[in-house]
Amino acid sequence: MTHTTTDEGTALLLEPSALPARTRLLKTLLRSRELSVAIVLLIVVAAAAIKSPDFVVSSDGWRDLLLTPTILLLLAAGQTVVIITRNVDLSVGSILGLSAWLTGELFMAHPGLPPVLAFVIGSAAGAGLGLINGVVVAYGKVPALVITLGTQYIFRGIVLTWAGSSLISASQMPDRFLKLGTAQIFTIPVLFIIAMVIVVAVGYYLQTARSGRELYAVGSDPEAAVLYGLPVNRRVVGAFILSGALAGLAGVVFAARYGTVNSSAGTGIEFQAVAAAVVGGVAIFGGSGTAWGAAIGAGLLMTINSALPMVGISDFWQQALVGALIIAAIVLDRVLAARQARKLIEARDES
Amino acid sequence: GKADTGTSSDGESGGSGDKPLSIVFLPKNLGNPYFDASDAGGKKAVEALGGTFSEVGPQTASPDAQVQYINTAAQQHASAIVLSANDPKAVGSALTQAKSSGTKIVTFDSDTEAQYRDLFVNQASPEGIAKAQVDGLAEQIGDSGEIAILSASANATNQNAWIDLMKKDLQADHPDIKLVDTVYGNDDDQTSFDKTAALLKNHPNLKGIISPTTVGIAAAARYLSTSKSKGKVALTGLGTPNQMRKFVEDGTVTEFYLWNPTDLGTLAAYAAAALANGEITGKEGDKFTAGDLGDYTVGADNTVLLGDPTGFNKDNIGDFDF
Amino acid sequence: MSERTYPSYTHPLWRRLLIGREAGVIALLVIIWLYGYSNIPYFGDTLTLTYILVDMTTVLLIALPMTLVIVTGEIDLSVASVVGLSSAVLGLLVQHGVGMPLACLTALVTGVICGVVNGFLVAYVGLPSLAVTIGTLALYRGIAVGLLGTTAVTDFPANWTELTSRVLGSSGIPTFMMVFVVLAAIFIALLHFSPFGRGIYDIGLSPEAAEFTGVNVQRTKMILFVLTGTLSALAGIFYTLRFGSARGDNATGLELQVIAAVLLGGVSIFGGRGKLPGVIAGVLLIGALSSALRLEGVTVNVINIIIGLLLVLSVLSTSLLAWVSDIRGSRARRHRVQRPTPTPSSVSSQ
Amino acid sequence: MDSPPQAALQLAGVSKNFGPVAALRSGSLTVQPGSIHALVGENGAGKSTLVKIVAGVHRRDGGDFFLDGQAVDFGSTAESKAAGIAVIYQEPTLFPDLSVTENIFMGRQILGRMRRIDKATMYREAGKLFQGLGVHIDPRRPALGLSIADQQIIEIAKAISLDAKVLIMDEPTAALSGVEVERLFTVARRLRDEGRALVFISHRFDEVFDLCDAVTVMRDGSYIGTRPIAETTVTEMVNLMVGREVADLFPKQDTDIGDVVLKVEGLQSAGVFHDVSFTVRRGEIVGLAGLVGAGRSEIARAVFGVDRYDSGTVSMSGTAVPARNPRAAIRSGMAFIPEDRRKQGLVTDASVAENIAGVIRRGLAKGGLLTKAQENRAVAPWAARLEVKTSSLDAPAKTMSGGNQQKVVIAKWLATKPDLLIIDEPTRGIDVGTKSEVHRLLSELAGQGLAILMISSELPEVLGMADRVLVVSEGRLTADLTREQATPETVMHAATASSGSQEMAR
Ligand SMILES: Nc1ncnc2c1ncn2[C@@H]1O[C@H](COP(=O)(O)OP(=O)(O)OP(=O)(O)O)[C@@H](O)[C@H]1O
Ligand SMILES: Nc1ncnc2c1ncn2[C@@H]1O[C@H](COP(=O)(O)OP(=O)(O)OP(=O)(O)O)[C@@H](O)[C@H]1O
Ligand SMILES: [Mg+2]
Ligand SMILES: [Mg+2]
């Protein structure tokens, strides 16, 4: 409020915000899309817990509450990075399947393999498949939806050929590795900790690294990004590599958590990953959204699945509710966006 | 009905022996160790008879995917299809067409409606299967308390038949046992695993689970073995020894049941060959020999019965490898 | 003013026909058919033709309106769930003793309602169709599974289920294809020979310009989503009768098959480009290829790999061709750069 | 080479083809450090193409390109940026989802600890940049929702912050108001005085003479000549550009003015315009003048039914036209040529024929069926009447120059045989040659009894063409002037009339 009246008259737009930094941060947080999804998630958990306290309180309940969404958490974070660049990766389910099978094969061939190495190899394999997607999409100048639909078929075909009709069961993998599937630190499952660390890191990277911000720029307006001199192709390839690596990691987590792998691991999970991102506030046409939001979205989708029966809704109606939730989320986004646009225009009017 | 396909004319090879024997095994889905075992038995039998064996099948246990494989086998004029049906009715018209082009139809493991096939090779009588599991679990939990069923898909013919029989058995013989929930793992490992977790969470007083499907019982056992409920919640059902060995040894599971799937495959293959050669027609009273398994007679409803299920526990599980 | 005249076309007819992606797909279809006919045992049987057509009928039916939707730049991922839902409705009604005609009609109306919901959210609320139909994909399937629960309804009258397998004389062509041919003719006229169809392309190429030209963008999109819902329901009825079984999980995953076929047929996922004959050829190509490969004893995994590769390569082909001509062009350019160029001073002296 | 060795930027005989289109045949340009160099030419002369070659967007097919005497060849915009070239493109290129600060610093954000982006410092820097430009923009607001003028200002801030040796501005003023243009010029002169080389592209000669030191003229993709600004005149420049004498820029014919065609009463849309009432009669050209951002386009769009409005009525020849329904407006006899030709006026990927037939095709169909042949037959006379330059009717509109595209849009609407033509910025971004053709055409159409509502930001155009001038300021009609009353002074006074602070600012 230091401007003179005449100065304000010339203002074209919003005055630079005079709010102190902390207030602004709080306001941003309160208005954020992530918070609203998180609140819904808490409500769901609370409702289930009231009906059946075991859902949260018992040690198994607590463990499963955190473990069940772990795989989708990883996939949703990876999917977010790709969607932000105005692409989509429909091949993550097949990448997950390949990596899970690879993990099983690795342990069958080398029972002494340190589990850490399995995680590294799984992620690297996923990254390699992501690289293929990325290169074809970026340099072939072809839509990601089509290409990853194609590679979804191809990668799944490879798992099927490799695995045939066989199955790798718990007894064929070392206990050291399978223990990771349920191991807990301070009651929090190790796999969940790994996933959370990665989701937080990805989200932080997107917000604070140059290349991370460039991903948003690429998705916000790809043509402008080219004119701007941004390395658009490199960024798109990078996004697909990251998504592939996370799907690969999710495959290893799958093997550790379920202890059994066959050729159909991860079938159909790609839609859930996209849905989690959308529910978590990631715009399907790129340019906005956070990995954190997507992770909360993943948590919500998976938790709803296990919580519904507790509040007395039959198994059979779960999917319908998930669908309604997705639609509610995008309608909410639209309402919020319209409100923001109106504010920006009003601000211009007032100036 | 007169399903006029315009093809019945070129496929009337009937039971003539001039065509080489080719038998197509079509399990519910690939990647299922139970069918691996049965198809292995089938393969050995077909090769012993000097025929060609092939195994085809969909990735997921859905009837529409099975139809395409039935069609292909019919196009190739295979001598016989040995099928475990994903739906008693949905594969019907495809089977009818295949039959009309001269292919014999044998179902095993999971039957279709009787008019669609020539013969059903039954693993064990449904009454026997249901009773073995219910009585087994009742013994383990002291004949009272809450139990639940973890089944395959909601439409699986045999599972649904067994579940109905189990309910009758429970009512008649075990009045203190209460069946509180039936959930479906769709014969998918991950789904079955998550459903087990949900079952335990939703029913804190649960004392036992029956899973009449090999995929389901293995997933449930794996979940139980890592959970606090291990040893407290009894688990039984139908499983293969190789998948369940670990859980029997570590005490998660006391006893489970199954017939020998390899024998089932072998019997189905011999039955199919006998039909294809015109040795039998599938009517009640027909007799044929199934290699080492011995002689079998076709019973009512064009059905051949393999035998009673075996119980596997700590004492005998070491003797089996499938 | 001198009255100028303009040629209508830059290229002669044969060139215009040959350059499209449609031509490539149709050629590939013919090649596979000829190869199969002469080299694969049983492929030439009329029975094979029957099976390919019956197998692909659901995809063919849904691909018609889906093409129009994709040409406007939208997408409908909920089609397979609409198949499932209409199948569930049909089954439920028949189970409760409702007559077939009324049950089928109700199933169709279910599809219309599904389409209206999609269309309303996309066209009038303005939400992205990719997100909306991922939502309704789950929603409609969920309702279908919720309605039927564990049951599969199988007691359909035989004279109705037979309709799906009856063939025309000895041609091997299923009688039901007549319905498809009529529908295909209507859709081709609609997309390629009507003002409405031109509007569909305009919307796909530039929605804003279409709006300014008086194309009713919202209503057009609404109509297309309703058509997609309706034909998906029709496909659902066909599917149910063909298998004689109504189940909540009928046709799961079919949406990807339909979209793959449409894209293979030369339709651009960005909208504004693509033709129905190409799409129909794309669907038949997948059907013929799968059938041929199955007859050759190729397993489902390899078939998947081949269909995936075909999809990727067909989409890449445009880019690859441009790339090749670019390389040729830059080679020629290198020659040109050598030539001496006039200096500014020499030009400015004019 | 007889040019001075220190030329900051030198292009000689540069050529570029897009498939069959020769966009640039032999482009040449020499810019000295510490000078502002104008680049002028008709639409499609190849100016933007030349700029894009310098920027590394396109690779040249032939010719020489020197920067500070060094031969260079840019494969990407990143390379040209690194070499010290900043470009403001003809179309603003902003990322709508990102804050204006991020838009300015994208790709070279200020890094803090551990190579993390230091947002606080960036906001401060952006604030300083805006201060230097004399504008008040919240550095945190997203670029979404900025008006075109505001977007252009962000582009300018971006280019300035690059600290480039060479700054190229491709029609930066097309969407700016007088004050903003002045501000931009102050900054440009300061940069020149710092010793940088600037290239300025504009169709407005007054600006060229006001700002620049030298001017290079292009025609048909070729270099025509370079003149120091002090030694040339508008007439010479126009002659060089067009290659012929251009007689009268605004040949308005007198016409008989007839009955009321369009009647707008009390039109209102919250936050955009208020209480707008006016009429347009047969044979009359009504000019809608005002500052950029005054809301003229919005009024026109609401009248035509593309935008909604809260209250008020629109009627054509006495019959009410329903709101929010362009189809109904077209049926009532309206035609609307929007200001953004490439996004709104044309489906650029569609062919010339499809574009011209865009509105009338419903009437062409026989029994619901429409063929290409019917379309071609119907559009050919209209293309001929407007002398559209195209090789064939199935050529995509995107391959044409701006002026020709505008002719296609006009043809499309004339084909509907309208009673009222609303035309928003009829000659924006159109060269002098085509411009006078468009003016002659509008005047001729009015002579034939068409009612015309013309929105224009160019005062000479409004004063020269209009029978009556309506002035809009801040969404309100502030004056209704006859041809005689309308002078630059009366119009500008009305345009800045409404609120006191506004008048002081502009
Ligand atoms: N990407 C492209 N593909 C095909 N033709 C093009 C392309 N870009 C430009 N052209 C053509 O090249 C010619 C020169 O265009 P350019 O944009 O350089 O003109 P300009 O002088 O900037 O005109 P204006 O004043 O209208 O901006 C035009 O005929 C145009 O149609
Ligand atoms: N990109 C935009 N997004 C939202 N609203 C806008 C946008 N551009 C303009 N507006 C709104 O419309 C009003 C007038 O805009 P505009 O600049 O188009 O006016 P105009 O008088 O038609 O000027 P001109 O036609 O000369 O550009 C603005 O004050 C603003 O409220
Ligand atoms: Mg230009
Ligand atoms: Mg305007």
Automatic annotation (TrEMBL), chain A:
<feature type="transmembrane region" description="Helical">
    <location>
        <begin position="145"/>
        <end position="164"/>
    </location>
</feature>
<keyword id="KW-0813">Transport</keyword>
<keyword id="KW-0472">Membrane</keyword>
<keyword id="KW-1003">Cell membrane</keyword>
<keyword id="KW-0997">Cell inner membrane</keyword>
<protein>
    <recommendedName>
        <fullName>Autoinducer 2 import system permease protein LsrC</fullName>
    </recommendedName>
</protein>
<feature type="transmembrane region" description="Helical">
    <location>
        <begin position="35"/>
        <end position="53"/>
    </location>
</feature>
<feature type="transmembrane region" description="Helical">
    <location>
        <begin position="271"/>
        <end position="304"/>
    </location>
</feature>
<comment type="subunit">
    <text>The complex is composed of two ATP-binding proteins (LsrA), two transmembrane proteins (LsrC and LsrD) and a solute-binding protein (LsrB).</text>
</comment>
<dbReference type="InterPro" id="IPR001851">
    <property type="entry name" value="ABC_transp_permease"/>
</dbReference>
<feature type="transmembrane region" description="Helical">
    <location>
        <begin position="185"/>
        <end position="206"/>
    </location>
</feature>
<feature type="transmembrane region" description="Helical">
    <location>
        <begin position="116"/>
        <end position="139"/>
    </location>
</feature>
<feature type="transmembrane region" description="Helical">
    <location>
        <begin position="316"/>
        <end position="336"/>
    </location>
</feature>
<feature type="transmembrane region" description="Helical">
    <location>
        <begin position="90"/>
        <end position="109"/>
    </location>
</feature>
<keyword id="KW-0812">Transmembrane</keyword>
<comment type="function">
    <text>Part of the ABC transporter complex LsrABCD involved in autoinducer 2 (AI-2) import. Probably responsible for the translocation of the substrate across the membrane.</text>
</comment>
<dbReference type="Pfam" id="PF02653">
    <property type="entry name" value="BPD_transp_2"/>
</dbReference>
<feature type="transmembrane region" description="Helical">
    <location>
        <begin position="236"/>
        <end position="259"/>
    </location>
</feature>
<feature type="transmembrane region" description="Helical">
    <location>
        <begin position="65"/>
        <end position="84"/>
    </location>
</feature>
<keyword id="KW-1133">Transmembrane helix</keyword>
TrEMBL record, chain C:
<keyword id="KW-0813">Transport</keyword>
<dbReference type="InterPro" id="IPR001851">
    <property type="entry name" value="ABC_transp_permease"/>
</dbReference>
<feature type="transmembrane region" description="Helical">
    <location>
        <begin position="77"/>
        <end position="94"/>
    </location>
</feature>
<keyword id="KW-1003">Cell membrane</keyword>
<feature type="transmembrane region" description="Helical">
    <location>
        <begin position="301"/>
        <end position="324"/>
    </location>
</feature>
<feature type="transmembrane region" description="Helical">
    <location>
        <begin position="222"/>
        <end position="241"/>
    </location>
</feature>
<feature type="transmembrane region" description="Helical">
    <location>
        <begin position="253"/>
        <end position="271"/>
    </location>
</feature>
<feature type="transmembrane region" description="Helical">
    <location>
        <begin position="49"/>
        <end position="70"/>
    </location>
</feature>
<feature type="transmembrane region" description="Helical">
    <location>
        <begin position="100"/>
        <end position="123"/>
    </location>
</feature>
<keyword id="KW-1133">Transmembrane helix</keyword>
<keyword id="KW-0812">Transmembrane</keyword>
<feature type="transmembrane region" description="Helical">
    <location>
        <begin position="18"/>
        <end position="37"/>
    </location>
</feature>
<keyword id="KW-0997">Cell inner membrane</keyword>
<feature type="transmembrane region" description="Helical">
    <location>
        <begin position="173"/>
        <end position="193"/>
    </location>
</feature>
<feature type="transmembrane region" description="Helical">
    <location>
        <begin position="130"/>
        <end position="153"/>
    </location>
</feature>
<feature type="transmembrane region" description="Helical">
    <location>
        <begin position="278"/>
        <end position="295"/>
    </location>
</feature>
<keyword id="KW-0472">Membrane</keyword>
<protein>
    <recommendedName>
        <fullName>Autoinducer 2 import system permease protein LsrD</fullName>
    </recommendedName>
</protein>
<dbReference type="Pfam" id="PF02653">
    <property type="entry name" value="BPD_transp_2"/>
</dbReference>
